[in-house]
Amino acid sequence: RYGEWLQTETRLRRQLASLIQADSSDEIAIVKNTSEGLSVIAQGLNWTAGDNIVIAAEEFPSNRIAWQALAPLGVETRLVDISHAATAEQRLIEAMDASTKLLSCSSVQYASGLRLDLQQLGQACKKNNSLFCVDAIQSLGAIQFDVNAVQADFVVADGHKWLCAPEGTALFYCRRNVMPLLQLHQFGWHMVDRPYDFNQPDWQPATTAQRFECGSPNMMGITALSQSLAVLSETGMAIIEKQVLNNSEYLFEVLSAMDNIEILTSQLSGKYAGIVSFRRNDVDNESLYDFLQENNVICAYRGAGIRFSPHYYTKTSDIDQALELVRGYR
């Protein structure tokens, strides 16, 4: 049976490589979560006092703490205000200089739902000779992703958001030519070349991204994520993206017609994906969130507003029911 588990692990690497259109599954590591992947990068790169990292001020803590932890080494983390959607990319680019070792950003911001132009940022990083890291957890599985088109050096994403899998299994993509830049800090049987040759007296790290996986894999999580990706593949990411965007646009349309509603997510073309955040300006929004939860509306309270994120399978009738509760709350 263990042989079947190993086949599932291999299959998942291939599925993840296909999902982000990577050149090879050799560039895919399976880690526990987004934070672990970011920490592999942060703790693996060779930093020099005076280096800086550029991130958005609105980032989820995972994509901030990993970099701020480098402060004792003299590394500066620059927080950039990207609250104005039309100029978000330009503000990030303008914050970079000759000492910027890495730009790290979320493909979609977790609170506002702002979607960034990753191609523009990737081009700027290459021009500046900076590394480019993308936290894709809020978009992977909702919209299409091409790692080569955006020129990302690293991509991290847990499987429990739009990929519809349990927590505890995540994608860590590392472009092959930058793997040698990451010093290893975790060691074990699973990260070596020929890991199933238990009697080898000498060892070397795997030449693939498996070098970042020190110990026994989470086979239950791997199986679940593989099955989820198989379901998404049956529909196809192009169709999924179209329906996710349709749902967001429907939310924009209905929310715009409601009284006392402020839409927090940018409605500019290309600036939104599957997250639509809003607030009612005539009520306490945390109380509104509690009310929605009590009425079985699965949403989140983020950035002083309510976050809806309907997936491709969410029916318009379900969205209507949720919006009626928003409208009727007193």
Query: What is the overall silhouette?
Result: globular
Give the termini separation.
56 Å
DSSP summary: helix tally: 10
> Any guess at the CATH architecture of the largest domain?
3-Layer(aba) Sandwich
Under CATH, the homologous superfamily of the largest domain reads Type I PLP-dependent aspartate aminotransferase-like (Major domain)
Mean pLDDT: 97
Query: Rg to the nearest angstrom?
Result: 21 Å
- Biggest sheet descriptor: 7 strands, mixed
When the domains are counted, the total is 2
Helix and strand composition category? alpha/beta
Report the strand count.
Answer: 11
Percent of residues in helices comes to 25-40%
Strands across the major sheet, in which order? 1-7-6-5-4-2-3
| CATH C-level class of the largest domain | Alpha Beta
Beta percentage is: 15-25%
CATH fold group of the largest domain: Aspartate Aminotransferase, domain 2
H and E string: HEHEHEHEHEHEEHHEEHEEH
Enumerate the spans where pLDDT stays under 50 for 5 or more consecutive residues.
Answer: none
Description:
The protein is α/β, with parallel strands linked by helices and 330 residues long. It has 2 domains: 2-235, 3-Layer(aba) Sandwich (Aspartate Aminotransferase, domain 2), CATH 3.40.640; 237-328, Aspartate Aminotransferase, domain 1, CATH 3.90.1150. The chain contains 10 helices and 11 strands. The protein has a 7-stranded mixed β-sheet, with helices on both faces. α1 packs across α7 (219-235) and α2 packs parallel to α3. The longest helix is centred in the C-terminal third of the chain and has 20 residues, at 237-256. The protein is globular. The model has no long low-confidence stretch (mean pLDDT 97).
